[in-house]
Amino acid sequence: MIWALLIRVEQRLNSTTYLSIVADQVHPIMLMAYPNGNGFFQQDNAPCHGAHVVQEWSQEHEGDFTLLRCPPQSPDLNPIEHLWDKVKRAIRQLVPQPSNLTELDSASRQAWYQIPRITFQHLVESMSRRITAVLKAKGVPTKY
Ligand SMILES: *[C@@H]1O[C@H](CO)[C@@H](O)[C@H](O)[C@H]1NC(C)=O
Ligand SMILES: *[C@@H]1O[C@H](CO)[C@@H](O)[C@H](O)[C@H]1NC(C)=O
Fold first, then answer.
1. Is the CB of 20 under 6 A from ligand 1?
2. Interval 100-115: pLDDT, tens
């Protein structure tokens, strides 16, 4: 089962606000979806994500899920880029365009929840293929 939730971040993202999202929103979802601790949480390595407080927090909750680290700027290993692309395209087609944050929020949500489950499923299944391709290419960008 794949959980594909979109969480709106109200504040500017820094290590404190990122940690509160991980602790208050991601953690309970992971516990619910993977009660045996066999889930993976993939974050990209934007600076706030790698921040010390977040590392410490995830060490304290080690048994609850596996934290996947990705090399920074590695879109080939970050399936979210593919999904953002779909959301952006759907929004670009709207007439009229969203004119404020509230409208942008609801348009993004609508686009996100219209992505078929199978798309998420395929992205998850493509991960081992992506990793193999990146390793083979020794970090040079691949077709993904
Ligand atoms: C992050 O931002 C919040 C509110 O925007 C602020 O209260 C907090 O001190 C900031 N944390 C760091 C580490 O800069
Ligand atoms: C956003 O724009 C819509 C349409 O112009 C308007 O009805 C709505 O009140 C606006 N919301 C905010 C929070 O400004």
1. no
2. 999 999 999 999 999 9
